[in-house]
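In this section we walk through a basic example: taking a raw amino acid sequence and producing a predicted 3D structure, encoded as discrete structure tokens. The instruction is simple. Fold the sequence below.
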Amino acid sequence: MLNFGGRYGKVTQSFFNAIAARAELRIQYLQSGEIYNAEHLLGVSFWASMTTDDCKRAGKCLAALVSAGLLPLTKHKIGKKAAWYYRGA
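The resulting token sequence is shown next.
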């Protein structure tokens, strides 16, 4: 079990690996310099297949992957929104 803190920060290694693999797969299709939210980064249909809680956990996983330098993205805040947004390299 991995713990990124907060209510939705606990995830299994397999969940984390699935999010990482999905993100790595989809990154190749991102437009350089465009900004994406987690839903569009992972794919709308993939996102829709998860529960609300799992969507929040997936967002935590993405943030951790980007912060650790494991994905070629940069994190951005837009306005006062709580969610992170990501820019492709």
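Looking at the output, two observations stand out. The CA atoms of residues 47 and 83 lie 15 Å apart. The chain has a mean pLDDT of 91. In the next section we compare this with other chains.
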